[in-house]
Amino acid sequence: MFERVPDILTFKECQRFLKVGKNTLLDLIHNGEIEAFKIGNRWKIPKECVLEYLRHR
Hints:
Mean pLDDT: 95
Radius of gyration: 10 Å
Number of domains: 1
Shape: globular
Order of helices and strands: EHHEEH
Distance between the termini: 19 Å
Strand order of the largest sheet: 1-3-2
Largest sheet: 3 strands, antiparallel
Number of strands: 3
Low-confidence stretches: none
């Protein structure tokens, strides 16, 4: 099911995948619920971190 999801998601891809808004995703990242990193000024979210979040939700 998740095979077509890229290994590293952009912020927008992650929003669409989780069906959440910008502020909600930022809250999840800043609260440490989803691990993410920045390249320049762009968020990158590893697919495994999103799946981990979904498993523990």
